[in-house]
Each structure stands twice: as C-alpha cells, then as structure tokens.
Amino acid sequence: QICLSLVKLLFYLAHSPLGSIVLLDFQPRQFVMVDGNLKVTDMDDASTEELSCKEDNDCTLDFPTKSFPLKCSAIGKCEGINEKKNLFNAYRYFFTYLLPHSAPAALRPFLSDILNATGDLRYGINETLEAFEKVLHLYKSGLYLQKRPLHLKDFISLKGFRTVEGEDYKCWPSYSHLGCLLSVHSAEEAAGICNSQSQCQSFIVTQRRTWTGRPLALFQSSLTDLIPDANAVVYIKRSASSGERL
User: Are 58 and 78 contacting, i.e. CB atoms less than 8 angstroms apart?
Assistant: First the structure.
C-alpha cells in the first residue's frame, strides 16, 4: 500500500502541470500516510529545474552506490533526470525495505521484477505504476491462486459459530500482535495457509477487510471457546476434530 501510493505520487510529480518535479530532500521522514495515501509533508525542497547539458557526458545521475548515464536532449536538458532521481530514491528508501516482505509467494517474482527494474532504472515511472497495478489486480482478484491444490477438503466447516479472539501463536505478517491474523482472498486460500502452519488447527474468515477489500482470517491452535454467531463459519482440521470436541 505504501509503495503503490508512493508510485502514484511520483507519477503525478512526473506529469504535473508545472513540469517534472524532483524532491531534492527525498527521505522517509518527508512523507506521512493520510487516509491510506502517502503525502509529502514539505515541498520547500521540490524543484522543476532539470539539469542543463551540452552533451551526454554532462548527464550522469550519481548516487552513493550507483551512477546512471542519461541523454542530453536537443533543448540542452538531461532527459528525465527529475523523474529518474525520484524513482531511484523510492527504490532505495522504500522498495528495498518493503517489497520483498509479506506478499503471497506467487506474487513475489512480480515484485522482484519491479525491484530489479527500478534499481537499475530500466523502468520509468509509467512502467513502474503499470507493474504495480498489475500486481494489485492479481492480488485483489485472486488470480495468483490458479492451479493450486484444493485444501478446504481437509477441513470440517461448523456454521453458526466463531472462535474467541485471544492470544495465540504468532505468524508473519500478522495484522494482530496477539495471534495470527492474515489477509486472504477466500476460505480456500486460508485453508492452504492453515495447512502450511503446524500450529494451526482451525480458522475463521472474519468480517474485517483490508484496504484492498480482502477479508482477514484468524488462525488458531485450539478449538476452545466456540461462540454462536449466525454469520460466521469455523473451519476445523479433520485431523483435529476426531476427538471429543465435536
């Protein structure tokens, strides 16, 4: 969410009515999340000036660990230097820390492609936004789950009940510090996650939603404290339901 919001912001800056705007003091502390969107808190160090040049050798974009040769345009400006400077700063301050983590395994290759392409400046801001929106579509639609084994058959569904949320085993990247609360596309995906965790014996798909509209599923290691709830379903591993609990 943070990276996508940042890319949308940089897309606007690259195509602003004032021209391509560069953030000269590009640091994480210069941004804040407001209602799920990343905002710049200080525009004092923003500029629309692009580096003047006479030849391509005048257009090297330098960073502490990398340098990128750019082209000198016919009007004597380094082509795309503001856009590329913003994008590489996004890569080194945000993408490298946030993109490799917490995505479903099937989507990680797409995010690695974005990471590598922006790190080498092979993507401009247009291509970067397009790549992010493709990943978001796959994530929201559940298309990344195609051709996977069916796991829900390994569970018994108990309709009309839910479990009590409390302290339980932890998992990454949980939305709760008390237990294992993860975003899922469906009960089928949740069943696959539960099967992959040795501690998990049951799960419920809650009514809570993430910013993408995906529900949150709570995974638990015990079958205690079932509460009547007409709108809920508890999914219990068949291997865990053979005792006196049911």
Answer: yes
Catalytic residue list contains 56: no
The two tokens of residue 25 are 């003091």
Contact 140, 212 (CB under 8 A): yes
Question: Is 152-242 a domain of CATH 3.50.4.10?
Answer: yes
User: Which tokens hold the place of 203?
Assistant: 């799960």
Domain-wise residue ranges, the chain: 1-144, 152-242
Q: Which fold has domain 1-144?
A: Transferase(Phosphotransferase); domain 1 (1.10.510)
Tell how far CA 13 is from the center of its chain. 22
Instruction: Give the tens place of pLDDT for each residue, 19-62.
Output: 999 999 898 999 999 988 899 887 778 999 989 999 999 999 99
Pick the catalytic residue: 25, 42, 45, 56?
Answer: 25
Q: What is the DSSP letter of 132?
A: H
Q: How many Cα atoms within 13 Å fall on the side-chain side of residue 245?
A: 17
Which stretches of the chain are assigned E, i.e. beta strand? 22-23, 31-34, 37-40, 46-47, 60-62, 67-69, 155-163, 180-183, 202-209, 215-220, 226-237
Whole-prediction pTM value?
0.84
